[in-house]
Design brief:
124 residues, 11 strands, globular, seven-stranded mixed beta sheet, four-stranded antiparallel beta sheet, mainly beta
């Protein structure tokens, strides 16, 4: 099992930026590990935001954030980041970090470890 702890959420004005962090600990990553960010607003389905292959660094993005968000990782620190630029009020929600043992996973059901989430609020 991998433990995931998110941080970096907060309140920002529309057009602003935030950087979310996800610190991972526990079982070491396997060759096929994918780390991802999802988000979920109250009473809505959890949706995929971005993913990155732990080894190799291939990245995947939802169309809604492409060009605005960037996912990255620091293997030495076991940390994944989500750099969010040009934030919009509709980006307001709770963001979750997740881990999958499947290379290139973007489906929620493929992820077996989840963090507690960090709230992002974008004011208009």
């Amino acid at each position: 099992q991998v433990q995931l702890v998110e941080s970096g959420g907060g309140l920002v004005q529309a057009g602003g930026s935030l950087r979310l962090s996800c610190a991972a600990s526990g079982r070491t990553f396997s060759i096929g590990t994918t780390m991802a960010w999802f988000r979920q607003a109250p009473e809505k389905e959890r949706e995929f935001v971005a993913a990155i292959a732990w080894f190799g660094g291939a990245t995947y993005y939802a169309d809604s954030v492409k060009g605005r968000f960037t996912i990255s990782r620091d293997n030495a620190k076991n940390t994944v980041y989500l750099h969010m630029n040009s934030l919009k009020p509709e980006d307001t929600t709770k963001y979750y970090c997740a881990r999958s043992s499947g290379f290139g996973s973007t489906r929620q059901r493929d992820f077996d470890s989840w963090g507690q989430g960090t709230q992002v609020t974008v004011s208009s």
